[in-house]
């Protein structure tokens, strides 16, 4: 079971603390409430019943201590006005019938996305907890509370979301007339009130879970096992305590990666407004020491994105590309997956000329993808960021492993053998492994070579083996064995050794895509900037370091080295599985707090942007474990 306490705000703790604060001084408030109620009763008994009914003062029970207690805290409590306003249209079968009618149709005429079938359960739970009475209208603080919600919805860009998805403009335009709806116009009261609730539910759901089902765009992430937040409870509690504006902080991911991206998004939005558009014009590479007419513009741009200090972006007369500007370009190149050689070549010019709005979009997409992640358990885990060609090692949630925070990797070839996005658990590793060649590689690559050169298998230290029985039997190379190979009755494997494609160690986390991490004899590929060369599995630059990390609680470093240098194949089962995430994110904060941007090598950013343009609510059924999804969706 996953322990989310490290990652996510504990809702129960929040409610408990709220209750504790509310309980403080409760004895004094109870006495005050009792005294006030006795005065009101005396006052009411001296008024005609018709007057009481007309003013909406008579109610089937006294509710002092809820909204009234909040008003007392704010110093704006007016008992008669509050009771009269709250009960003007807040209770009774007329309102309840209209609210239930809207919920049952799962359609809302006010909203740009009228179908709310995927939010209907939360909406019903919210109003059921309130006796199917109005939540927003019909009380003395209606205008303030609705303004708080609208301000919240309009802050959607700070979370990388589009405010148009929450109808904030329409709701604000309708507010003045909504506040004047006649007390008997139950339908219009219910329509506006539920529209506010639905927009807020959608906003909070999108912050916590994201807007897109990752499974629908081939992101095979682990489904959620627990429902950790109860949106109706959070909304009701925020109404009670006047804390509506705090809601996003309660539901957004608490991973440091998300929080840093959110801060960066705000900074880039400010840069977009304040900074002039920068476009570097260069027909040939600019090397350190060369003349660069746009040197001042380049200085200002590098300073704006943090690659040189602000005081280093002066207005010198020299147009020579030297010194701190070269160092700033190298830092920029490092952050954008380029060779940090200081030469302003074609790739660097292209990266410099990406509009800041384009970088902001990358950050928004990164935030959306982080929302998709289920809660990570405490303890070590490994992340491969595919477009970064990097692997990051964590000792615990948000804590990089100091001995080996990251390493270069080789991933699957773009548009051909793409490494899949997935989550799995590393359960064992093989030292000096055999490589069981996938049938697709046998058919497409090895068979043609074998037909031209019958000695190809021996040359590559490979052998034919059976695919059935208790153990693999080596088969001689004959015409009939070739036929069996074509039909899939036989397979090819590569024996351990220097030529073995998996190198000296293979890290295995069972998954449907049958991919894994492994060593490689082709070390020269790690010197390249773009490293998508594999058939889908991920080759690691430092297998010894990764093996030390994986086995640090089981084996000494000396034992790992011995296994790496022993010809014998050996499997080691991990005492505790380690989560592995193959992720795809083109904006990422590294272990040095550098915001790095990577090229969209698989075109996944474009796919996600297209999915985000579709107007639909995310179904909880798609993000929770299938067999238990219905049960998990029930209120906590």
Characterize the structure shown:
This protein has 636 residues and is of the alpha+beta class. The chain folds into 3 domains: 11-248, no CATH class; 278-354, Muramoyl-pentapeptide Carboxypeptidase, domain 1, CATH 1.10.101.10; 380-597, L,D-transpeptidase catalytic domain-like (Beta Barrel), CATH 2.40.440. Helices cover 42% and strands 13% of the residues. The chain has 24 helices and 17 strands. The protein has an 8-stranded mixed β-barrel with strand order 2-3-5-14-12-11-6-15. Helix 6 (93-105) packs antiparallel against helix 7 (120-128) and helix 8 (142-154) runs parallel beside helix 10 (186-209). The longest helix has 24 residues, at 186-209. The chain is globular and about 90 Å long. The two termini are 17 Å apart. The model is unreliable at 1-89 (pLDDT under 50).
Number of helices: 24
Helix content: 40-55%
Low-confidence stretches: 1-89
- Main β-sheet, in a few words? 8 strands, mixed, barrel
- Tally the structural domains: 3
Annotation, overall tally of beta strands: 17
Instruction: Name the structural class.
Output: alpha+beta
Strand order of the largest sheet: 2-3-5-14-12-11-6-15
Mean pLDDT: 85
Oligomer: single chain
Instruction: Name the shape in a single word.
Output: globular
Over all CA atoms, what is the radius of gyration?
31 Å
Determine the strand fraction and express it as a percent band.
Answer: 5-15%
* N-to-C span: 17 Å
What brief labels describe this structure?
four-stranded antiparallel beta sheet; globular; 17 strands; L,D-transpeptidase catalytic domain-like; eight-stranded mixed β-barrel; 42% helix; 3 domains; disordered N terminus; 636 residues
């Amino acid at each position: 079971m996953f322990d989310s306490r490290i990652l996510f705000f504990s809702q129960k703790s929040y409610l408990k603390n709220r209750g504790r604060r509310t309980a403080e001084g409760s004895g004094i408030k109870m006495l005050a409430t009792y005294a006030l109620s006795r005065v009101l009763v005396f006052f009411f008994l001296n008024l005609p019943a018709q007057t009481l009914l007309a003013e909406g003062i008579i109610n089937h029970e006294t509710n002092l201590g809820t909204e009234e207690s909040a008003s007392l805290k704010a110093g704006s409590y007016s008992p008669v006005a509050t009771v009269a306003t709250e009960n003007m249209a807040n209770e009774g079968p007329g309102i309840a019938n209209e609210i239930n009618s809207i919920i049952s149709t799962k359609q809302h005429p006010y909203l740009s996305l009228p179908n709310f079938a995927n939010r209907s359960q939360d909406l019903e739970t919210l109003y059921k907890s309130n006796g199917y009475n109005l939540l927003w209208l019909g009380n003395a603080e209606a205008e303030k509370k609705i303004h708080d919600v609208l301000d919240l919805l309009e802050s959607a860009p700070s979370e990388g979301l589009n405010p148009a998805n929450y109808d904030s403009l329409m709701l604000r335009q309708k507010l003045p007339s909504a506040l004047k709806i006649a007390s008997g116009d139950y339908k219009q009261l219910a329509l506006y009130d539920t529209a506010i609730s639905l927009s807020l539910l959608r906003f909070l759901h999108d912050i916590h879970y994201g807007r897109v089902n990752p499974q629908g765009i081939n992101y095979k992430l682990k489904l959620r096992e627990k429902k950790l937040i109860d949106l109706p409870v959070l909304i009701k509690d925020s109404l009670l305590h006047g804390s509506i504006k705090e809601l996003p902080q309660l539901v957004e991911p608490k991973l440091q990666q998300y929080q840093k991206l959110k801060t960066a998004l705000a900074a880039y939005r400010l840069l977009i407004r304040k900074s002039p558009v920068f476009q570097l014009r260069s027909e040939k590479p600019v090397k350190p020491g060369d003349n660069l007419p746009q040197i001042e513009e380049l200085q200002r741009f590098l300073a704006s994105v943090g690659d040189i200090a602000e005081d280093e972006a002066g207005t010198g007369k020299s147009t020579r590309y030297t010194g701190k500007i070269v160092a700033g370009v190298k830092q920029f190149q490092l952050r954008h997956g380029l060779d940090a050689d200081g030469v302003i070549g074609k790739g660097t010019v292209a990266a410099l000329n990406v509009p800041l709005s384009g970088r902001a979009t990358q950050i928004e997409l990164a935030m959306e993808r982080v929302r998709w992640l289920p809660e990570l358990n405490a303890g070590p885990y490994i992340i491969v960021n595919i477009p970064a060609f990097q692997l990051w090692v964590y000792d615990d949630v948000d804590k990089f492993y100091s001995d080996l925070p990251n390493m270069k990797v080789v991933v699957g070839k773009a548009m051909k053998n793409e490494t899949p996005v997935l989550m799995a658990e590393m359960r064992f590793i093989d030292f000096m492994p055999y490589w069981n060649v996938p049938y697709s590689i046998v058919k497409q690559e090895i068979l043609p070579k074998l037909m031209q050169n019958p000695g190809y298998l021996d040359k590559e230290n490979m052998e034919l083996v059976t695919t059935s029985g208790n153990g693999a039997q080596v088969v001689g190379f004959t015409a009939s064995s070739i036929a069996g190979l074509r039909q899939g009755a036989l397979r090819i494997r590569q024996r351990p050794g220097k030529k073995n494609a998996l190198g000296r160690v293979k890290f295995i986390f069972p998954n449907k895509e049958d991919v894994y991490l492994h060593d490689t004899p082709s070390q020269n590929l790690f010197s390249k900037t773009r490293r998508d060369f594999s058939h889908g599995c991920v080759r690691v630059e430092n297998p010894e370091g990764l093996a030390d990390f994986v086995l640090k609680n089981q084996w000494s470093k000396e034992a790992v080295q011995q296994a790496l240098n022993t010809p014998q194949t050996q499997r080691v089962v991990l005492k505790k599985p380690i989560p592995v995430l193959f992720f795809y994110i083109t904006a990422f904060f590294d272990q040095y707090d550098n915001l790095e941007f990577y090229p969209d090598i698989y075109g996944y950013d474009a796919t996600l942007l297209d999915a985000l343009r579709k107007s639909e609510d995310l179904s909880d059924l798609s993000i929770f474990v299938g067999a238990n999804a219905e049960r998990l969706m029930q209120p906590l």
